[in-house]
Amino acid sequence: MKIFGIPVFPEQASTFAKDVDALYFFIFATSAFFAVVVAIAVIYFGIRYHKTHDGEIGARIEGSLPLELLWSVIPTIIAMVMFGWGATVFYHLRRPPAEAMHVYAVGKQWMWKFQHLEGQREINELHIPAGRPIKITISSEDVLHSLYFPAFRTKMDAIPGRYTELWFEAQTPGEYHIFCAEYCGTNHAGMIGTVTVLEPAQYQAWLQGGGLEGTLAERGAKLFNDLACSTCHLDTGQGRGPSLKDIVGKTVDLQDGSSVMVDEAYLRESILNSQAKIVKGFQPLMPTFQGLVSEENLVALIEHVKSMSPNATTATVPATGAAAATPNPAAAAAEKK
Amino acid sequence: MSNAVAHADEHAHAAHHPALQHHFDTMAQQKEAAVVGMWVFLLTEILFFGGLFAAYMVYRIWYFDAFAEASRSLSLFWGGLNTAVLIGSSLTMAMAVRCAQTNKRTATVNWLVLTMVLGTVFLGVKVIEYADKFEHHHVPGYNFQWAAHEAPAAGEHAPAALAASEGAAAAEGHRELSLNADQLQLTTQIYFSLYFTMTGLHALHMIIGIGIMLVITWMAYKGRFDEEYYTPVEMAGLYWHFVDIVWIFLFPLLYLVERHV
Amino acid sequence: MLDKLKIPERHYLNNGHGLASWLLTKDHKRIAIMYLISISVMFFLGGLFAVGIRLELATPAGDFVSADAYNKFFTAHGVIMVFFFLIPSIPAVLGNFLIPPMIGAKDLAFPRINLLSLYIYWIGGIFTLYAMLSGGVDTGWTFYTPYSATGSNSNVVPVALGVFIAGFSSILTGLNFIVTIHRMRAPGMTWFRLPLFVWAHYATSLVQVLGTPVIAITIVMLGVERGLGFGIFDPARGGDPVLFQHLFWFYSHPAVYIMILPALGVQSELISTFSRKTIFGYSFVAFSSLAIAVFGFIVWAHHMFVAGISTYAAMVFSFLSFSVAIPSAVKVFNWTATLYKGAISFETPMLYAYGFMGLFAIGGLTGLFLATLGMDIHLHDTYFVVAHFHYIMVGGAIMGYMGGLHFWWPKITGRMYSEFFSRIAAILVFVGFNLTFLPQFVVGYLGMPRRYHSYPDEMQVLNVMSSAGASVLGLGYFLPVLYLLWSLKNGEVAGANPWGASGLEWQTQSPPLTENFIEAPVVDHEPYEYEHVVAKEKHLV
Amino acid sequence: MSGHVSPISLYLTIFMALMVLTGVTVFAAFVDLGQFNFLVAMIIAGFKASLVIWYFMHVKYQSKLTKLTVATGLFFLVILLGLFLVDYGSKALTGMPPLLN
């Protein structure tokens, strides 16, 4: 929305935009109502009861319990409506649908790096199709960042050492801002970019144009060979490492008697900290790849492993805003006892 | 000032205590204000250590095994000794306050000195323990080194560890397996970071406490106190007991995370 | 009328001369004056950095100062304004000066600790200023890890240490107030005869005493991590950067109530005095202060809805956050009801009180947007938040401070300032403030993130409006310096009770004696009974 | 005026109780109680702290205000730790702790 050519209201480019804006207008209207009532009362009293002579004093009114109750209870009820409505919208924002298209984002001082499953890699630019839910898994290479799409009314912090995620469904093709919303150092204001929402057909065309290195999973497959993962992780299960075929989404038993659900977080941990959760029946032989694999290559590897489980629904990540893993030694220890 | 004093005189007692400040009406009011004030200060101390306890709680939940492992490397002997020393110093402090209450000047001084001696013993043991950490590279930072299978300093828990592993670990019996060497290196460092922050701040409080007590002892020696006015001794006592209470919690939290393995 | 009012012969200002009589004083009033001077210096210093920020943001490109300098500007602005101006502002100046006379005491319970708190404030301030001026710090006043621990190469530790030191000043002030209010009340001054200003300060002191130690320990942990290489928050060593945010906001959210609660107390005094009417619902206004202080401790994680807390925790904290809204609303409604059938006049303090009503209402109501989960995801860390907390901390706290300063100025100095210029200043502040911060709500909803050195072109008009408003606001804040200083020598003599107010502090001479009262007061009537004031005036005439 | 003077025997009893409880807490640590080890250690520590507060620090003989102050401190400590658990406890439930790097 623009007034005199100045934008005063952001574009509604996602399905959330309408939900969030509806909530906004509700709170705005309620607040405005109370503000106006108080303002009118205060101004009216100021004029009506203006002091007329020296020594005049106001009427002695100590208070009124019914009134106090009235103006405590009514705001409480309204606040609860706001809470309930807001929580509903929030819950929706935090639950990516299973069929969402997956994109990876890595924040780094001071740029956003995006990777598509098809292999396209972009910096400070993101191309996505309209009308499809998109899930972005976010990580950071250094400090806190926050991936923010104002036109989609959503953002999520990037936290080093963790995966977080957000999702949205863009509706209106066009170009919109990407901001970093969490202060991240000197050039924080330069950590901005453009998200381009394309018609699905255009998006397909755009995909054809890029992807020189193949899909993300293909790139991962190449790394899988280059890093010699393939020498141990044989599909037959006869290798020194467990077969990675069809494991995603399954639960595997571990050496220490506990078990773990294979998802992105577990794969990430197993690559970086290979000794953390040894699958039952295998020796802790695998070296750690901490410092050897960049965040970008890491997601490529994970994508490759996921591509080896074609039947698994990839949305194994519970929508807590971050990927699941249970390196929860207390729980593990408790289980053991 | 003189006006105010004169004023206090006319409706309070004929001769007021020399320690009564001009803005209080009675000694009782002054003492009560001091006690409440001291407790409000201790309230802030509770939350000061509370922040540390919160951080400790979070990481203990996350990295329980590392905490258990690192905690076993602490010497139970020194830790237990220090607990006894500190509780003993609380007793001597309570005695000092009691003697001040009953206006026994020499005894007050003696008990205060004994309290300080015990406090110093505690700090001395802490120095021994810290030195041991330096030797084993257990001080967080660039030289931090956690050797996963390093035997704990004293042999006393070895049998216990054996006995427990027989019963508990039906799988492999390797208690350490849930965290590998790299992870232990990282997460035991968090434990030791908290260990040094917690015990360091506790020791700092003790040093301040001993400093305060030096002054109080001097005042007691000079005969500044009587049964009407011994507030400084009592305040120092409250502070010292609080430091003792912090240790009462630090001891199980740091030394006794999981000893039965 | 009494046209021969004179400044009394003996009062706290002429009881001792020379620097030593000030620096070694135990008089709460003199300490308050020294605080007043110190925080005024800090206020204009912090304001100077705000000028730098608004100049930079007048154009979309980052062309006024470098990005690094800009980051140091907003950090300096935040640190100085929050820790060295707003937190000590009303408590250490007005509270310090007025609580003893208001409750009929000769001094605070611990005068030496009061002086100590001033010295600690000075040490912390000098430490911070030195670190700011010799290189600065660029982490933002929030010091978020891991940037503050490992990323930034600016003076993080010295500045944090300065904040740490200043925290003890705040704790000692709060401690002193709590004990004073409990143990130093005059005979007959029951809890429900206390002025609401005192209730508000009691609540504030609770927050100071309970919250400040947590930021202190957080700074210690940050310090050992950055300075000694310990691993506590560093994710590269298994630490959790979000833990820092939890600890930080456990103090820093309640800290907002350290700033606003005293202003709410001032507001109650002003509304009652200038409508010559007892406050409507005294006990509700009194207890709502306590409720705000306590609830303030259970809402902090609404600063962290997108920071990686669990969905469940976000829901709990959003729910709890609304609990603060209710006592705040109760206060506003009670003030409004107090005006009903009053005898209202609009002297300068009342202008500030009216301005406060408007700005605090907007600040509070926009807080609802931020407590609402789905909404906050979009608004978090944008200019909407910046506008919101400036409405509370500037529109609320500083309006309250200015109103209170103008209200008690005749009590503090014994003289009146220029009514004409002070009204102009009050109007300038109100208009300038709204011009500055209303556009920021709009630009915030558009999505402009905070702490941006440069921004997209289409947001320029709103930012220019904001910068223009800031210049009006700046003028509104500078004008009082001139006429207040002028009044020290040339102002009309005010007399003991120029406003016809009911509080105990107005019963004594202006400026008061060092021991506040000639005769220890005995309170025999309820608060805000203007019948007594009128009767006494008639008796005098 | 001089406040309550406790008998020496009381102080000695408290001291002995504290020493015995220290022994108990060390002993309990060597018994495998599962998750109750922590609980037992904290209950004993809490009991020891209460003894010190109540008798050594004379809170038993102090005004209601002092007792209230002590209670306030504990109340806000519980708020601090409890609300931390609202987040960190639920992360453990939904499986969100950090990935070790």
Description:
The complex is a heterotetramer of chains A (337), B (261), C (541) and D (101). Among the domains of chain A are: 101-209, Cupredoxins -  blue copper proteins (Immunoglobulin-like, Sandwich), CATH 2.60.40; 232-336, Cytochrome c-like domain (Cytochrome Bc1 Complex, Chain D, domain 2, Orthogonal Bundle), CATH 1.10.760. Helices cover 34% and strands 20% of the residues of chain A. Chain A has helices spanning 15-48, 65-93, 200-209, 216-226, 264-272, 295-307, 329-336, and strands at 2-3, 6-7, 101-108, 111-116, 121-123, 125-129, 133-140, 145-149, 154-158, 164-169, 174-180, 193-198, 251-253, 259-261. In chain A, strand 13 (251-253) and strand 14 form a beta hairpin. The relative contact order of chain A is 0.12. Mean pLDDT of chain A is 84; it is low at 314-337. Chain B has a single domain, classed as Cytochrome c oxidase, subunit III, four-helix bundle (Four Helix Bundle (Hemerythrin (Met), subunit A)), CATH 1.20.120. Chain B has helices at residues 2-11, 27-62, 64-72, 76-101, 105-135, 158-168, 181-221, 231-255. Chain C contains 16 helices and no strands. Chain C has one domain: Cytochrome c oxidase-like, subunit I domain (Cytochrome C Oxidase, Chain A, Up-down Bundle). Chain C is globular, with a radius of gyration of 23 Å. Chain C is mainly α. The N and C termini of chain C lie close together (7 Å). Chain D has two domains: 1-61; 63-101. The longest helix of chain D is centred in the last third of the chain and has 31 residues, at 64-94. The model of chain D is unreliable at 94-101 (pLDDT under 50). The A-B interface holds A 255-258, 273, 275-276, 278, 284, 288, 290, 327-330, 332-333, 336-337 and B 60-66, 68, 168-172, 174, 177-183.
